[in-house]
Amino acid sequence: MVLEKIKVATDTYLVGIGVSPGISIGEISLVAQRPTVDQSPIAAVEVDAELLRFQQAVDQAREQLQAIKRAVSRQQHLREHLYILDTHMLILEDDMLVEGTKKIIRTRVNAEGALTETLEQLRALFDNIEDEYLRERRSDVDAVGDRLLRILTGVGERSIGKIGRKSLVVAHDLSPAETMQLDRSKILGFITDKGGRTSHTAILARSLDIPAVVGLESITSLVSEKMPVIIDGSNGVVILNPSAETFKEYLQRKQSYEYLERELDNFLDLPPVTTDQVHIPLRANLEIASDVVQAKKYAAEGIGLYRTEFLYLGRNEPPGEEEQYSAYCEILSQAEGAPVTIRTLDIGGDKFVPELNLADEDNPAMGLRAIRFSLREEQLFKIQLRAILRASSHGRVRIMFPMISGVAEIRACKKILYDIQAQLDQEGIDYDPELAIGIMIETPSAVMIASLLAKEVDFFSIGTNDLIQYFLAVDRGNEHVAYLYEPLHPAILRALKATCEAANSAGIEVCICGEMAGEPLYVLVLVGLGFDELSMNPACVPRVKRVLRQISKRDGEQLVDKLMSLSTSKEVSTAIENEMGNRLPDLFSQPVI
Asked: 505-522 pLDDT, tens per residue?
């Protein structure tokens, strides 16, 4: 094949973030980037016209989303994701976006420029959010902003759904709405400059079974129309202009992967037990009731982490008790008797509730966030706890407090919880008096005093994303030090082992709900460390279960003993890859880079 415009060396390998597994081979369809916007001053007499033009753009964007929703609702496999379009329509009603833009227009700035300035302000707020899932909600604001800018500039919608040939899409970014419109018979996969593992676009790609690699930063500047490419969404690898040898290699890998994927259906109804008959429940992480559909689809045994932050996101005042109670009851109803672990608010209040007017912090990761914020804003905390307790009478609820760093904090939380229970008793309102209380182990201090914390609670849940960041003093969002974010660092393994030992000694359960839980390569290690439960993205459950049913806890313990003698992350990762490659070569063959 002849390359157009750009000359790229044969077998040019790029590594991004693999967000949807699978291998695709084909030619590129290059999608136009977002329109260029000029921020221009306007005369005072033009302000009203610009305000009207912006409001008309908002109305038109809503009509576009409603049309997409009607079309998508006719596709059975996408119905469970319609809430994403509802979220985008809610963003179009958000005062921070709409009224914020109008306020800037009134300072005599054109609509496009005012909107661009507002979007930058909103992105800055999201950038300060530590939780990756919530930080990725910025992409939904970007998607709505891009839609509005296209209307205002007259560029119009991108016709991704009308690509007529089999190809792999390359774009600066894809919105969830655009992803929903991809023709699966034509689009073999996609690659983007932007994006993260937990964005709605990534979630949709997994649901559609479209291999995807995101976060490549400059892929759109390297490629040209019809350039040959290979996408390995399992490993985050993209190969431009592959040689004949590389093509053959990845064709074999593609065939092997697709065979193994067809086998996954055979594991859905099987219990998650090791070969030595140790049952390890595999639960789902989610944030809204409709996600329970996907959890049940992949046979997750309940909800190991329900992120309540979604209820607070993008609004001017926090949700009340009744709204939260209804949301929790809906989750429990959808779960149909399976256990649901509800985590209390895990974010700084200034990022969700503007009316609180908390001061900006130089280091929000170590500032007033999670349980620290809840204990300071006690009334908000009490409202949430009342709603959770009331909902507990309708299902199997466990409550979990985030970012606990000491015994005093958990005792303060329990006192407030017990006070509310007493209030509910006086009011004759039902709740589960046996409701289990747990904490997130995310800080080095919590690891160091895990044996003391274990005496205070019924279970631990380790949030590896934050634990790794705090333990290694690495901001994984900082491109200069992100390479130091190493889940297999010897210090992390020792922290996990110490926490599991403390929980086991105290006779309480210990769970893991970070990204490590959903990585099949780590299953043997996590079982060997002594975890009683793994909670993950629902789509990861079948793959983890497949590995779990082919390994034993005893073998895991032996591997952990071996790993404890190793000194570097590289040594640890190599040992795990070799061990899993030898045990399950069909699942863990390594990409050639």
From this structure: 999 999 999 778 988 999
